[in-house]
Amino acid sequence: MDKTPEFDCYSTDDEVFHDGGKDEALQDLDDDGRLAVGAEFRLGVTKTPDPASFFDVNWLIEEMQVNASDNHGECAEDYLVDLTQDQIKELDGVVKAWLQANAEVHFYSAEGIETFLVTQEDIDSFRHACAQQGKGGAA
């Protein structure tokens, strides 16, 4: 049994997605003077990335090795080369746990994107809802 996606973001330009759904997409189209039969908008489902996914433990170790070498020359050539896989895994876990606890993400990607065309029924429903709320939606 197919489950209908819970759309929670929209785009009216296929570039930037905003929080909201069909109603907000129609409002944006109306605000821009583009609410017409056949106008396109997209709906998607937000996916907030795990901040730990931006971290690469090997990059951190390499940067530390480069900095040590830059600051201390040949004496630091072998710095951190003897780390075991368990030590590297432990460092990775510590940093990723810190990121998950402290580095809140305020952006998302849109997935499951579907394109919709505005219908006359959409416009009529939108205008009716706006008239009831006493805002926008002027023809």
UniProtKB/TrEMBL annotation:
Per UniProt, the ranges with Basic and acidic residues bias are 15-24
Q: Where is this region: Disordered?
A: 1-24
Source superkingdom: Bacteria
Q: What is this protein called?
A: Uncharacterized protein
